[in-house]
Specification:
single chain; Quinone Oxidoreductase, Chain A, domain 1; alpha+beta; Rossmann fold; about 200 residues; 4 helices; 5-stranded antiparallel sheet
Amino acid sequence: MKQVPDPQPGPDEVLVDVVSTALNRADLLQRLGLYRAPDPQPQFEIPGLEFAGRVAACGERVIRWSVGDAVMGIVGGGGYAERIAVHERQCLPVPSTVPLADAGGIPEVWITAHDALHTQGGLQAGDAVLIHGGASGVGTAAIQLARRAHASSVTSLHRPARSPPAANSGPTSSSTTDRRTSSPPSPNTPAAAVSTWSST
Protein backbone atom coordinates (compact mmCIF):
# COMPACT_ATOMS: atom_id res chain seq x y z
CA MET A 1 0.00 0.00 0.00
CA LYS A 2 1.08 3.55 -0.64
CA GLN A 3 -0.30 7.05 -0.48
CA VAL A 4 -1.24 8.71 -3.76
CA PRO A 5 -2.74 12.16 -4.32
CA ASP A 6 -6.53 12.49 -4.27
CA PRO A 7 -7.96 12.46 -7.78
CA GLN A 8 -9.40 15.71 -9.07
CA PRO A 9 -12.76 15.41 -10.85
CA GLY A 10 -12.97 16.66 -14.41
CA PRO A 11 -15.90 18.81 -15.60
CA ASP A 12 -18.16 15.75 -16.17
CA GLU A 13 -16.93 13.73 -13.21
CA VAL A 14 -17.88 13.22 -9.60
CA LEU A 15 -15.42 12.61 -6.78
CA VAL A 16 -16.68 9.77 -4.60
CA ASP A 17 -15.65 8.95 -1.04
CA VAL A 18 -15.54 5.16 -1.33
CA VAL A 19 -17.33 3.30 1.47
CA SER A 20 -17.19 -0.24 0.05
CA THR A 21 -15.90 -2.32 -2.82
CA ALA A 22 -15.66 -6.02 -3.64
CA LEU A 23 -13.00 -8.57 -4.47
CA ASN A 24 -13.33 -9.86 -8.05
CA ARG A 25 -11.34 -12.43 -9.98
CA ALA A 26 -9.76 -9.70 -12.11
CA ASP A 27 -8.42 -8.06 -8.94
CA LEU A 28 -6.65 -11.28 -8.00
CA LEU A 29 -5.25 -11.65 -11.52
CA GLN A 30 -4.09 -8.02 -11.51
CA ARG A 31 -2.23 -8.61 -8.24
CA LEU A 32 -0.45 -11.54 -9.95
CA GLY A 33 0.43 -9.36 -12.94
CA LEU A 34 -1.97 -11.25 -15.24
CA TYR A 35 -4.61 -8.55 -15.76
CA ARG A 36 -4.00 -5.14 -17.25
CA ALA A 37 -6.38 -2.29 -16.57
CA PRO A 38 -8.18 -1.15 -19.74
CA ASP A 39 -6.81 1.84 -21.66
CA PRO A 40 -6.20 4.63 -21.06
CA GLN A 41 -3.74 3.42 -18.45
CA PRO A 42 -4.21 5.15 -15.08
CA GLN A 43 -1.43 7.15 -13.48
CA PHE A 44 -1.52 4.81 -10.47
CA GLU A 45 -2.37 1.11 -10.67
CA ILE A 46 -5.06 0.65 -8.04
CA PRO A 47 -7.23 -2.49 -8.16
CA GLY A 48 -10.98 -2.49 -7.69
CA LEU A 49 -13.59 -2.85 -10.44
CA GLU A 50 -16.54 -1.54 -8.47
CA PHE A 51 -17.33 0.87 -5.67
CA ALA A 52 -20.06 2.41 -3.57
CA GLY A 53 -19.88 5.65 -1.65
CA ARG A 54 -21.00 9.24 -1.35
CA VAL A 55 -20.39 12.06 -3.80
CA ALA A 56 -17.82 14.43 -2.26
CA ALA A 57 -17.52 16.91 -5.15
CA CYS A 58 -18.96 17.50 -8.62
CA GLY A 59 -17.38 18.81 -11.79
CA GLU A 60 -18.87 22.00 -13.25
CA ARG A 61 -20.94 20.17 -15.92
CA VAL A 62 -22.33 17.41 -13.66
CA ILE A 63 -26.15 17.44 -13.69
CA ARG A 64 -27.15 14.01 -12.33
CA TRP A 65 -25.60 14.10 -8.87
CA SER A 66 -25.16 16.35 -5.85
CA VAL A 67 -22.71 16.28 -2.98
CA GLY A 68 -23.82 13.64 -0.47
CA ASP A 69 -25.65 11.37 -2.96
CA ALA A 70 -25.13 7.63 -2.43
CA VAL A 71 -23.78 6.11 -5.66
CA MET A 72 -22.25 2.88 -6.92
CA GLY A 73 -20.62 1.88 -10.19
CA ILE A 74 -18.21 -0.17 -12.28
CA VAL A 75 -14.74 1.16 -13.13
CA GLY A 76 -11.66 -0.14 -14.94
CA GLY A 77 -9.70 0.12 -11.68
CA GLY A 78 -9.35 2.31 -8.62
CA GLY A 79 -12.26 0.96 -6.57
CA TYR A 80 -9.94 0.10 -3.68
CA ALA A 81 -8.90 3.73 -3.25
CA GLU A 82 -10.40 5.92 -0.55
CA ARG A 83 -11.55 8.37 -3.25
CA ILE A 84 -12.28 7.89 -6.93
CA ALA A 85 -13.14 10.33 -9.72
CA VAL A 86 -15.56 8.87 -12.30
CA HIS A 87 -17.72 10.19 -15.11
CA GLU A 88 -21.19 10.95 -13.79
CA ARG A 89 -22.72 8.42 -16.23
CA GLN A 90 -20.73 5.58 -14.60
CA CYS A 91 -22.67 6.02 -11.38
CA LEU A 92 -25.96 4.46 -10.35
CA PRO A 93 -28.05 5.45 -7.35
CA VAL A 94 -27.77 3.13 -4.35
CA PRO A 95 -31.30 2.00 -3.43
CA SER A 96 -32.40 3.32 -0.04
CA THR A 97 -32.91 -0.26 1.16
CA VAL A 98 -29.27 -1.24 0.49
CA PRO A 99 -26.57 -0.20 2.99
CA LEU A 100 -23.51 1.44 1.42
CA ALA A 101 -21.40 -1.27 3.05
CA ASP A 102 -23.19 -3.86 0.86
CA ALA A 103 -23.66 -1.78 -2.29
CA GLY A 104 -19.99 -2.06 -3.30
CA GLY A 105 -20.56 -5.72 -4.18
CA ILE A 106 -23.54 -5.15 -6.47
CA PRO A 107 -22.46 -3.45 -9.73
CA GLU A 108 -19.95 -5.87 -11.28
CA VAL A 109 -21.92 -9.04 -10.56
CA TRP A 110 -25.45 -7.84 -11.21
CA ILE A 111 -24.76 -5.61 -14.22
CA THR A 112 -22.70 -8.40 -15.83
CA ALA A 113 -25.44 -10.98 -15.22
CA HIS A 114 -28.19 -8.62 -16.43
CA ASP A 115 -26.21 -7.71 -19.54
CA ALA A 116 -25.52 -11.38 -20.39
CA LEU A 117 -29.11 -12.50 -19.87
CA HIS A 118 -31.18 -9.59 -21.12
CA THR A 119 -29.06 -7.29 -23.31
CA GLN A 120 -26.93 -9.94 -25.04
CA GLY A 121 -29.14 -13.02 -24.63
CA GLY A 122 -32.61 -11.49 -25.00
CA LEU A 123 -34.00 -13.70 -22.21
CA GLN A 124 -37.81 -13.90 -22.16
CA ALA A 125 -40.36 -15.55 -19.88
CA GLY A 126 -40.54 -19.27 -20.67
CA ASP A 127 -36.97 -19.46 -22.01
CA ALA A 128 -34.35 -21.75 -20.51
CA VAL A 129 -30.88 -20.53 -19.61
CA LEU A 130 -27.62 -22.45 -19.10
CA ILE A 131 -25.43 -20.76 -16.51
CA HIS A 132 -21.81 -21.90 -16.25
CA GLY A 133 -20.18 -21.19 -12.90
CA GLY A 134 -23.51 -21.22 -11.09
CA ALA A 135 -21.92 -20.82 -7.65
CA SER A 136 -19.93 -17.70 -8.63
CA GLY A 137 -21.16 -14.19 -7.91
CA VAL A 138 -22.26 -13.62 -11.50
CA GLY A 139 -23.74 -17.12 -11.62
CA THR A 140 -25.87 -16.70 -8.50
CA ALA A 141 -27.06 -13.30 -9.73
CA ALA A 142 -27.95 -14.81 -13.13
CA ILE A 143 -29.94 -17.59 -11.46
CA GLN A 144 -31.99 -15.04 -9.52
CA LEU A 145 -32.49 -12.80 -12.57
CA ALA A 146 -33.63 -15.78 -14.66
CA ARG A 147 -36.11 -16.79 -11.97
CA ARG A 148 -37.36 -13.19 -11.77
CA ALA A 149 -37.86 -13.24 -15.58
CA HIS A 150 -39.90 -16.49 -15.27
CA ALA A 151 -37.27 -18.47 -17.16
CA SER A 152 -35.92 -21.85 -16.13
CA SER A 153 -32.22 -22.25 -15.44
CA VAL A 154 -29.66 -25.04 -15.54
CA THR A 155 -26.23 -24.52 -13.99
CA SER A 156 -22.85 -26.16 -14.28
CA LEU A 157 -20.59 -26.36 -11.25
CA HIS A 158 -17.04 -27.58 -10.71
CA ARG A 159 -17.76 -28.90 -7.22
CA PRO A 160 -21.12 -30.01 -5.82
CA ALA A 161 -20.24 -28.47 -2.44
CA ARG A 162 -20.36 -25.01 -4.06
CA SER A 163 -23.96 -25.31 -5.24
CA PRO A 164 -26.00 -22.10 -4.95
CA PRO A 165 -27.06 -21.82 -1.30
CA ALA A 166 -30.69 -20.69 -1.29
CA ALA A 167 -33.22 -23.23 -2.52
CA ASN A 168 -35.77 -20.52 -3.37
CA SER A 169 -33.29 -18.72 -5.64
CA GLY A 170 -31.55 -21.80 -6.99
CA PRO A 171 -31.60 -23.18 -10.51
CA THR A 172 -34.21 -25.64 -11.67
CA SER A 173 -31.41 -28.18 -12.28
CA SER A 174 -27.62 -28.38 -12.14
CA SER A 175 -24.70 -30.52 -13.22
CA THR A 176 -21.20 -30.92 -11.82
CA THR A 177 -17.85 -31.11 -13.58
CA ASP A 178 -15.10 -33.03 -11.79
CA ARG A 179 -12.19 -30.57 -11.82
CA ARG A 180 -9.69 -33.47 -11.74
CA THR A 181 -10.79 -34.58 -15.20
CA SER A 182 -11.44 -31.21 -16.82
CA SER A 183 -8.94 -28.60 -17.83
CA PRO A 184 -8.69 -25.55 -15.55
CA PRO A 185 -10.07 -22.25 -16.81
CA SER A 186 -7.66 -19.84 -18.43
CA PRO A 187 -7.15 -16.37 -16.90
CA ASN A 188 -9.34 -14.96 -19.69
CA THR A 189 -12.33 -17.22 -18.94
CA PRO A 190 -15.18 -15.18 -17.45
CA ALA A 191 -16.29 -16.08 -13.94
CA ALA A 192 -19.65 -17.11 -15.33
CA ALA A 193 -20.64 -17.65 -18.93
CA VAL A 194 -24.31 -17.57 -19.77
CA SER A 195 -26.13 -19.13 -22.73
CA THR A 196 -29.82 -18.75 -23.46
CA TRP A 197 -32.16 -20.60 -25.74
CA SER A 198 -35.83 -20.19 -26.48
CA SER A 199 -38.36 -22.91 -25.86
CA THR A 200 -40.27 -21.84 -28.99
